[in-house]
């Protein structure tokens, strides 16, 4: 008969082996599903999901958005403005956040503390915010250069703007029908749009050919492995990100601003 310590050791070993077996079965099933899906992609004229993967888990672009914001969480501090809601300011801001404002273009968002159009938001005082979070918004604004000028104006000198927008993506049908979806961006266009903020500007693209195909078909991030998601191929820009710190002198270089270039 086994002693109590031997029984405990045997029990722990058994549990570890069971967990390892279940994990291997889950990974094998996921790989089989992915192989089955991608092996017959030529026969598919409709995506698996038109909801960006929300109905299957976490959208792939949201995985990239959160990776970007996690890298720059230290910049989310003081008075923060977030477009749409305050999800990311609360998730990544921490104790350094003093006050959060929510910007929305229409009055139907009950959480909004500021209702304004980014292209002509004169009601927002200049140099108000220490950080602005603007995710997946710029593609819905036709006069995108005017919106960039507003973001520059309302950000304090030394403040940080964190922006994301789509590179390779399906159309958001709801937004297209509501107010239009006008643009797709590249790292080159993003850098030119935000160069007026000053030299402390970082532009990065996330994605690769696999995640681009998966995202277009509406698969979720959970259906891919971490190493597949994290691999970046510069020729497949699924998501674009910009971190722009406003120069301490507080003045945009009008000769080099995105607004000037667009004319």
Commentary on this structure:
This protein has 263 residues and is α/β, with parallel strands linked by helices. It folds into 2 domains: 1-35; 51-261, Vaccinia Virus protein VP39 (Rossmann fold). The protein is 37% helix and 18% strand. The protein is built from 9 helices and 7 strands. Strands 3-2-1-4-5-7-6 form a 7-stranded mixed sheet, sandwiched between helices. The longest helix has 36 residues, at 4-39. The radius of gyration is 22 Å and the shape is globular.
Strand content: 15-25%
CATH topology of the largest domain: Rossmann fold
Secondary-structure element order, N to C:
HHEHEEEHEHHEHHEH
Helix content: 25-40%
Number of helical runs?
A: 9
CATH class membership of the largest domain: Alpha Beta
Termini Cα gap = 87 Å
Q: Given the C-alpha coordinates, what overall shape results?
A: globular
Please give a handful of descriptors for the protein shown.
single chain, 263 residues, alpha/beta, Rossmann fold, 2 domains, seven-stranded mixed sheet, 9 helices
Task: Indicate the topology.
Blueprint (H helix, E strand, L loop, with lengths): L3 H36 L20 H12 L6 E6 L3 H7 L3 E8 L9 E2 L13 E7 L8 H11 E12 L6 H6 L8 H8 L6 E6 L2 H8 L9 H5 L8 E7 L12 H4 L2
Parallel strand pairs: 1-2, 1-4, 2-3, 4-5
Antiparallel strand pairs: 5-7, 6-7
Q: What can be said about this structure in brief?
A:
The chain is of the alpha/beta class. It has a seven-stranded mixed β-sheet, with helices on both faces.
């Amino acid at each position: 008969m086994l002693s109590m310590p031997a029984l405990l050791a045997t029990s722990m070993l058994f549990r570890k082996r069971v967990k390892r077996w279940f994990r291997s079965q889950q990974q094998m099933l996921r790989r089989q599903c992915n192989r089955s899906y991608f092996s017959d992609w030529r026969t598919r004229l409709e995506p698996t999901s038109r909801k960006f993967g929300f109905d299957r888990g976490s959208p792939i672009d949201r995985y990239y958005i959160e990776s970007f914001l996690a890298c720059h969480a230290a910049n989310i501090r003081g008075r923060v403005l977030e477009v749409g809601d305050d999800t990311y300011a609360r998730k990544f801001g921490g104790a350094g956040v003093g006050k959060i404002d929510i910007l929305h273009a229409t009055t139907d968002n009950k959480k909004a503390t500021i209702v304004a159009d980014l292209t002509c938001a004169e009601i927002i005082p200049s140099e108000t915010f220490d950080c602005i979070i603007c995710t997946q918004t710029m593609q819905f604004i036709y006069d995108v250069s005017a919106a960039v000028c507003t973001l520059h104006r309302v950000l304090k000198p030394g403040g940080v703007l964190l922006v994301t927008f789509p590179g390779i993506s399906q159309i958001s049908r709801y937004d297209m029908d509501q107010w239009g979806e006008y643009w797709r961006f590249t790292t080159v266009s993003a850098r030119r749009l935000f160069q007026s903020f000053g030299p402390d500007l970082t532009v990065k693209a996330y994605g690769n050919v696999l995640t681009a195909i998966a995202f277009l078909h509406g698969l979720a991030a959970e259906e891919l492995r971490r190493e597949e998601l994290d691999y970046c191929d510069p020729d497949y820009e699924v998501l674009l990100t910009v971190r722009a710190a406003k120069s301490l002198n507080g003045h945009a270089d009008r000769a080099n601003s995105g607004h000037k270039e667009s004319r």
